[in-house]
């Protein structure tokens, strides 16, 4: 199949106008396309395109009435502010998680991260995926070791140069969020629960899934990908009962399965963790306030964000 033909910026603006987009200032639109790129912005106006009358989840080229280029660009800026806000919170969670894992596992064994006795036996078993034999524990060991070797931090270079063993409280500082969260996922239940308790989470299994979702979100933020209508593959579980975290989420009401796949609920989870780290933090209120700053577009923002109606 031949690739689509190339269009210069004036031709792209004309194409948008032909498809029904309002363009109050064509020169400004050309400038914004040159700054950001047509393809990147297309992800923000995609929800403004008419749905296909027959094929589910497919869109036509024509836009809904009242789709305005300036408002589309406001959505792009809204998403950028949201990414920066989320990335700031995720950094706090990552730093805290490293400190907790280093403390909880370090007091058991300074080299705990190299010892399989702390790992759930299920994670130590070989499995076959797409015809290839795999092992989660050995793959993780290889991955974290590569991160240690790749690090240029003075403290790690010192350990390698002097042939010193690297204790867990040193190693964690070189781990990526993905490596960190995978280690937590592989730990035996009692170790997971001790770490979860330090983070104010009553159910360690919930925290495993939350960290997976936060890691995906972190990567999207780091690569400047769209987040406002991001959707998790599976709904995130929330605690219930009388635990502290359950009471927190209960204040926001119940959520449907589809809402638990969206950024609003994940933002509440992040907000809860940040409040446990710093009780005086105003991050959650800033997050909720930012979600009110959606532009004037013919989009169901409540659905896209996963907010209660």
Compact summary:
This protein has 309 residues and is mainly alpha-helical.
Topology:
Layout: H1 9-18, H2 26-36, H3 38-45, E1 49-51, E2 59-63, H4 69-106, H5 121-124, E3 126-129, E4 132-135, H6 136-150, H7 154-161, H8 168-171, H9 177-186, H10 189-198, H11 204-222, H12 244-250, H13 263-277, H14 283-290, H15 301-305
Helix pairs in contact: 1-2, 4-10, 4-11, 4-13, 4-14, 6-9, 9-11, 13-14
Structure explained in plain terms:
It is a single chain. With 309 residues, the chain is mainly α. It folds into two domains: 9-67, no CATH class; 76-305, no CATH class. The chain is built from 15 helices and four strands. The protein has helices at residues 9-18, 26-36, 38-45, 69-106, 121-124, 136-150, 154-161, 168-171, 177-186, 189-198, 204-222, 244-250, 263-277, 283-290, 301-305; strands at 49-51, 59-63, 126-129, 132-135. It has a two-stranded antiparallel sheet with strand order 1-2. A hairpin with a 7-residue loop joins β1 (49-51) and β2. The longest helix is centred in the N-terminal third of the chain and has 38 residues, at 69-106. The mean pLDDT is 96.
List keywords for this structure.
mainly alpha, two-stranded antiparallel sheet, single chain, 15 helices, 309 residues
């Amino acid at each position: 199949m031949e690739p689509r033909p190339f269009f210069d910026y004036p031709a792209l603006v004309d194409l948008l106008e032909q498809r029904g987009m309002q363009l109050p200032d064509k020169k400004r639109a050309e400038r914004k396309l040159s700054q950001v790129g047509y393809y990147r912005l297309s992800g923000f106006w995609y929800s403004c395109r008419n749905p296909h009358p027959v094929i589910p989840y497919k869109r036509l080229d024509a836009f809904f009435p009242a789709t305005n280029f300036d408002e589309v660009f406001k959505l792009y800026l809204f998403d950028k502010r949201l990414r920066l806000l989320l990335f700031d919170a995720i950094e706090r969670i990552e730093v805290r998680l490293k400190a907790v894992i280093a403390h909880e596992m370090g007091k058991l064994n300074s080299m705990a991260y190299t010892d399989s006795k702390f790992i759930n036996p299920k994670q130590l078993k070989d499995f076959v995926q797409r015809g290839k034999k795999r092992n989660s524990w050995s793959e993780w060991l290889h991955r974290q070791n590569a991160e240690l070797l790749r690090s240029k931090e003075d403290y790690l270079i010192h350990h390698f140069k002097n042939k010193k063993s690297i204790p867990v409280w040193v190693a964690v500082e070189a781990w990526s969020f993905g490596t960190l969260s995978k280690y937590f996922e592989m730990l035996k239940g009692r170790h997971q629960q001790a770490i979860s308790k330090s983070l104010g989470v009553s159910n360690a299994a919930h925290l495993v899934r939350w960290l997976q979702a936060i890691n995906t979100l972190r990567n999207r933020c780091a690569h400047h990908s769209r987040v406002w209508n991001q959707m998790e593959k599976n709904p995130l579980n929330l605690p219930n009962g009388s635990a502290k975290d359950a009471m927190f989420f209960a204040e926001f009401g119940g959520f449907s399965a589809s809402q638990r796949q969206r950024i609003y609920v994940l933002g509440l989870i992040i907000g809860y963790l940040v409040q446990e780290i710093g009780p005086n933090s105003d991050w959650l209120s800033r997050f909720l306030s930012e979600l009110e700053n959606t532009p004037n577009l013919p989009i169901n923002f409540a659905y896209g964000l996963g907010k209660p109606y």
